[in-house]
Amino acid sequence: MSNECTLENMMNKSLDEICAITKYCEYDYINLNDLHYCVLQGKLYFSLPIFIIIGLICFYLLSDTANKYLSQALTNISDKLGLSQNLAGVTLLALGNGAPDVIASIVASNGQDDEGLDVAIGALLGGGIFVSCLVFSMVVLFAKTIKVKYYLYFSLILSIKILK
């Protein structure tokens, strides 16, 4: 039996075997597999609230960091360049939002195999389709001044089918 921490080794195993395999998993901060399978005995009704709370804490920390550093940097750069708040939000904020995706795609596509390139293209297209279809549909749905019901339902159904 291989004790590598891979999904294939954890499939169709008992809880004790999965717990033994998760001891070999290396993580920088928290071993969530060990927490779920060993500490909480694989009980989803204990694990799910803890993971949701961890996710909410991560989103709070991300928004707090963006508020402290990205917003201040955006303000300073727009003041130096003499840009209005609207123009800075449309250009510089979009650049700050898209730069990590572009850099991650460049890094992913520099590998020897074609899988990295497939993942990079898929991530960029998936994000673009998500924003174009689902977010735009929600904006149109909840906007009070736009009266486009038939097109809205068509684009919402199309976005749901694409994301499946």
What is the CA-atom radius of gyration, in angstroms? 22 Å
Strand tally: 0
Q: What kind of sheet is the major sheet?
A: none
Uncertain runs with pLDDT below 50, 5 residues or more? none
DSSP helix fraction: over 70%
Can you give the mean pLDDT? Answer: 79
Gross morphology is extended
Give the H and E element order. HHHHHHH
- Domains counted in the coordinates: how many? 3
Q: Given the helix and strand composition, which structural class is it?
A: mainly alpha
Distance between the termini: 36 Å
**Percent of residues in beta strands:** under 5%
What's the number of helices? 7
Please give a structural write-up:
The chain is mainly α. It is built from seven helices and no strands. The chain has helices at about 5-10, 15-20, 30-40, 45-80, 85-110, 115-140, 150-164. α4 (about 45-80) crosses α5 (about 85-110) and α6 (about 115-140) runs antiparallel to α7 (about 150-164). The radius of gyration is 22 Å and the shape is extended. The model has no long low-confidence stretch (mean pLDDT about 80).
Question: What attributes characterize this protein structure?
Answer:
164 residues; mainly alpha; 3 domains; 7 helices; extended
Write the layout of secondary structure elements.
Elements: H1 7-10, H2 15-22, H3 32-39, H4 44-81, H5 85-108, H6 115-142, H7 149-163
Summarize the structure.
By secondary structure, this protein is mainly alpha-helical. The chain contains seven helices and no strands.
